[in-house]
Amino acid sequence: MYKRRNAGLGMARVIEPxxxxxxxxxxxxxxxxxxxDVHPNxxxxxxxxxxxTVDIRxxxxxxxxxxxxRIEDGIDTxxxxxxxxxxxxxxxxxxxxxxxxxxxxxxxxxAERLGLSHTNIVSGAGHDxxxxxRVAPTAMVxxxxxxxxSHNEAEEISKEWARNGANVLMHAVVETAxxxx
Length: 181
What we know:
This protein has 181 residues and is mainly alpha-helical.
């Protein structure tokens, strides 16, 4: 065993610092390893190669850069200790997006007028609104999901939550457009 180089062990050890880094930058940072390919992916062969994604998000570009540096330093330390090589390839990066304050206020005001609970949240996902925000004032309405599970095949939302979200959007748009008083 001591002669073997175990890429799977290296990958497993990287998962912890990714999680710890995200936790250290709370309340608005996230970090996960969501996709893993192990080669040769056989139950009795130590992996010679692992390819996996590290997804980190924060509304602060400075925080994102600090998180990335910390994780990369951790990967370097882990791989050096295990005598395994690694490559880092950045396959996607989105600078944090700040939505239009007027649009955000319109959504918040609509929720209040409708007597609905609301809170400002940070979404680091690459939603279409992030791209639209580059050319037009934008905000998002997020609806609650059962057990807080979203962006997952098991995501579920009640009809009432969907109706409330649609009503908030409609009222924000109509009131912003000045169609009604």
